[in-house]
Specification:
The protein is mainly alpha-helical. The protein is about 65% helix and about 0% strand.
Amino acid sequence: MFMDQVASDDEIGLDTFDLLVAGVRRCMDTGRFSPADPVPLALQLWSAAHGVMALVLSGLLEDDLALATLDSTWRNLCLASGDDPARLDRSLAKVRRAVGAPAGRPSTGRFDARHRG
């Protein structure tokens, strides 16, 4: 299964997490986020991304809904951390363009059929 540990090296993946911590710290240093320890927010952002990816890999979440879920989750976390809504919307739009995220409401596929009325 994709969640099985594939290596015993405790450092695998932590270099990526360190980059995320550094990015959160930069946002704090420039006033985008309220001053705080950057690790808890980085861990929340990292966990959200990995959780959504686990759902995609298990076939429970389609790609476009995964992108929309990450977008809204990261938006909520950034706003709660003090980011300006207009600046955040510009940043997220830039990310959407960079990853080729589809425009419009995402298809919710199996999730919609099972969990919505």
